[in-house]
Amino acid sequence: YAYGAWFWQDDFGFIAHYANSIQWNQLFDFTNFGRFLSRNGYWHWGIKYFSYNAQFFYIFNFFIILCSCLLLYKIFEKYGRLNGFIAGLFYFLLPATVDSYAWLSNSQHILGHFFVLLFVYLFTKDGAGKSRLNELSYALQLVLVLILGFTSNIFMSMVVSLPVWMVLTNKEHRRSKTAYFTVGFGTLLFALFFFKLSGNQTGAYSTSYTIETLAKNLDFYFSSGFFATIWIVSIVFG
């Protein structure tokens, strides 16, 4: 597929905007929808190193997907290597993963998935007996991943629920300053991005908690009340 496919739709707009200049001002004004890494960085450095060879972009995206699969394997490996392998394979074969791979602009999702999983991997590693210096290094790693994830896609905010849950259910994390710091920093990042993006009141992307906006989103992403219901029920029951 990568050998035969080329750029499509939004790809051309991003190339036109960022091929010659990365536009650092958009890191603060959020006119790029807050996705500085997955739009500005991806397309600017992509064109710089890959030129207009779409195949190289597909190979890069495929590499990111494989890295996400590896992270899933490492996260679930402690429950058995077979479980880790199944977790990685599950993500690799998901229709949403395949669909995201088929369009280069959906690197905005692929990169977001990677940073979500990287955060989960780092946060769930065995952290017993960390020295104060190691604790600081660990906290800075998590902060860096949060920043990179948020500048890829705001859905990175979902990972803040992990340290909250771990603090509530795990004594070791309850005594960890890193967990509280991560929750605080992640919450501030979410508030900043939410506030800055709230001006983008357009269609399914509207920052507006109304039944009308919810209906637009469900129709936009699922085009079916049946599939939307299955999705909501699945999320509610984990």
Short synopsis of the structure:
By secondary structure, the protein is mainly α. 70% of the residues lie in helices and 0% in strands.
Q: Would you give an account of this structure?
A:
By secondary structure, this protein is mainly alpha-helical. Helices cover 70% and strands 0% of the residues. Helix 4 runs antiparallel to helix 5 (81-93). The protein is globular. The model has no long low-confidence stretch (mean pLDDT 89).
Chain-wise SSE layout:
Blueprint (H helix, E strand, L loop, with lengths): L9 H9 L7 H4 L6 H15 L3 H23 L4 H13 L1 H7 L5 H18 L7 H19 L10 H9 L1 H4 L2 H21 L13 H12 L2 H12 L2
Secondary-structure-derived class: mainly alpha
Strand content: under 5%
The averaged pLDDT comes out at 89
Low-pLDDT runs: none
Identify the notable features of this structure and list them briefly:
single chain; 238 residues; mainly alpha; 13 helices
